[in-house]
Design goal:
Radius of gyration: 24 Å
Mean pLDDT: 82
Largest sheet: none
Number of helices: 8
Oligomer: single chain
Structural class: mainly alpha
Number of strands: 0
Shape: flat
Helix content: over 70%
Length: about 200
């Protein structure tokens, strides 16, 4: 119980600190001062937060979203200031976090053929009427098989689209730094991910 209470308190304290950092960073921008230190603190705080089995799935998901948002804000600030070295590092970290949310769309995952869907009622109705037992047996087998989701979830698709945007920024940073080989590598990743998104069933 003590561990649970301690982890819940740490979770609450972290949310408060992130909110404070966000407010102060916006104030720094309004005063034309650099928000870098506060944004960096948020990233470090979330990255160094110890893993806990006491948090709910919703709480863990929220922390992941906050971590991605924090690194995205820091990366954008680096790009805007022209700090390409920091931009490269922060975009790489952001891409790693985003890719973990892409599921089967991850560019590291070997593409597999989509599962064949069950026959439609119209297909069954056009089967040979002279052998109804065969149709009934096939239908029973299909009904008995577990439902397997085809393609990525909407959340995974969004994560993949966000990842493409991050890779595009990273490609530009590499180009500006004269690292054309790395920029070309990013371009290839972007094309492959776009291809995967176009080949999914829901992308009509």
């Amino acid at each position: 119980m003590a561990s649970y209470e301690s982890d819940q308190q740490l979770f609450a304290d972290t949310l408060v600190q992130i909110q404070v950092h966000s407010v102060l960073a916006k104030e720094q921008v309004r005063n034309k001062r650099s928000p870098f230190p506060l944004l960096a603190k948020s990233c470090s705080l979330l990255d160094n937060l110890p893993a806990s089995s006491q948090l709910s799935e919703a709480q863990s998901s929220l922390l992941t979203s906050l971590k991605i948002d924090a690194w995205a804000a820091f990366a954008d600030a680096c790009i805007e200031s022209g700090d390409l070295v920091q931009a490269e590092a922060s975009l790489q970290r952001l891409a790693t976090l985003q890719e973990a949310q892409t599921g089967p769309l991850s560019w590291r995952t070997k593409k597999r053929p989509l599962k064949k869907s069950a026959p439609t009622p119209s297909a069954i109705s056009t089967a040979t009427a002279s052998d109804p037992t065969t149709v009934a047996a096939e239908t029973k087998v299909e009904d008995a098989s577990p439902s397997v989701p085809v393609g990525p979830t909407p959340e995974q698709r969004k994560a993949a689209l966000d990842l493409v945007e991050t890779w595009d920024k990273l490609k530009q940073a590499y180009s500006d730094m004269g690292k054309q080989d790395l920029a070309n590598n990013m371009a290839n990743r972007i094309n492959k991910m776009k291809s995967r998104l176009n080949l999914t069933i829901d992308d009509k």
